[in-house]
Amino acid sequence: MPTQGASPASPGDGGRAAALQQDKDEYARKALETLRAAGFTDPLTYDPERFLIQIPDAKGQQAQTIFLGNLYEEYRAAPPEQRDRALQRITVLGRAPGSPISYTSARSSLVPVVRPRAYFALLEIPDLNNLSPFPRPVEWRPLGEVLAVAIVLDTGDAMKYLGQEQFREWGITFDEALGVAMENLRSQSSEPLIPVAPGVCASGWRDSHDVSRMLLDEVVRRCKVRGDPVVFVPQRDLLLITGSEDEEGLLRAAELAQKAFQAPRPLDGHALRRTLQGWRPFLPSPYGKAWLAMRKLAVYSQARDYTDQRDLLRQHHEQLGLDLFTADFVLADDEQGHIISQAVWVRGVDTLLPRVDRIFFMDSELGPEAPPVAVVRWEAVERDMGARLLPMEGDYPVRYRAQGFPSPEQFARWKKDPKAMDVP
Questions:
Q1: Could you give the angle at the alpha carbon of 236 between the alpha carbons of 329 and 241, nearest 5°?
Q2: Model confidence at 2, in pLDDT bands (50, 70, 90)?
């Protein structure tokens, strides 16, 4: 991680990214071989940027999309002698039911799934090297700003995400299908929650739909909490519930979530609080004992989502011939040991900035070795330069197109404002 006051740029990032991509491509090659050896004879399409494999149905239409991210992490985490077994899991996923399937036969197998919003949003960044005629593979709706809900056809052995085309074939809307899926999930959710600490409950279903039960009010209410319900969804098989006014409960839930989030197949690190407007991202008071752990979980999730988005956007801009730089979302520790996020705004470079805690302003005219002109907190930049920060419509996580560069007078004003400058 960069140290306090240093530029977030890292010369080794390109080499590490290339090595990681090579490793992922090698895993995908093995996955394709495994699918073919298991009898999948139709043309299989590997998309390296989105890290997925598409399997057509008998008519050549898209029947199945296998997202490789979690499978890859499981494979990497497995001991060498168990990696072949981990690799074979893809053959089960590849046998998820394809089209056509009637709504009558599918109805009882529909289940809602909760996943990170970025998981689906990144699928909608166009790939100009692969102009597919298919509609987007998954239909979804935002949930609590940082999550999303989709619908799967769950056969017990595998799950198939459902897209627009499937709902049109059935003659129903997404919302109608979601209502059916919710009733199916409700019928499978009568078991009590598991008390894991005073004021903290955990799910115990372990059926890949634990976190989806945050959609069921009757399940959330089974945990008696102080304040509003707060949920953590670090793994698909772990839903943690505590109360917004319970500092000890929040800390214990955050500790459990942090451990689960570090295991293979992590879901999301944000805590969400149930409000009158629905679920919303939640952090307690920064003076409370749970703030630091909860803040770290949220920022780690942001870093993962921004990094995945950066890779796809850079490829997309290259395909379009755009000279547009997608800035890194970089993590560092401040003097108090608090994790912070930062990005670079360079004079004369057309840049897409992530929303971060602080901005490093670099003047390329001063030379490549020059230190930052200033390091300014995001709130101050947004307050004084908001007209030059254009939110990019449709991007999630949100990015801003940085236009122009602050004037010397603006830098002077920031340097006189102790609330604006992080580094003199």
A1: 90
A2: very low
182: which 2 tokens? 């919710």
Please state, as a whole number, how many other Cβ atoms lie within 10 Å of the Cβ of residue 176. Answer: 12
Compute, in degrees rounded to 10, the torsion defined by CA atoms 385, 386, 392, 396: 100
* Spacing of C-alpha 340 from chain mean position: 18
Bridge partners, 111 (sequence order): 152
pTM: 0.82
Angle at 239 between CA 233 and CA 242, to 5 degrees: 95
Task: Supply the DSSP string of 168-185, one letter for each residue.
Answer: HHHT--HHHHHHHHHHHH
Reported as half-sphere exposure (CB side, CA atoms, 13 A), residue 307 has a value of 14
Q: What is the pLDDT of residues 245-298, one digit of tens each?
A: 999 999 999 999 999 999 888 999 999 999 999 999 999 999 999 999 999 999
Q: At what angle do helices 83-93 and 69-77 cross, to 10 degrees?
A: 160
Which tokens in the block code for residue 261? 């989030």
Residue with tokens 């409370």: 288
Residue 46: Cβ-neighbour burial (10 angstroms; 0-12, 13-18, 19+): middle
CA distance linking residue 307 with residue 6, whole number of Å: 20
List the one residue out of 329, 338, 339 whose CA is nearest residue 400.
Answer: 329
Which tens digit of pLDDT belongs to each residue from 88-135? 888 876 665 555 689 999 999 999 999 999 999 988 877 655 555 455
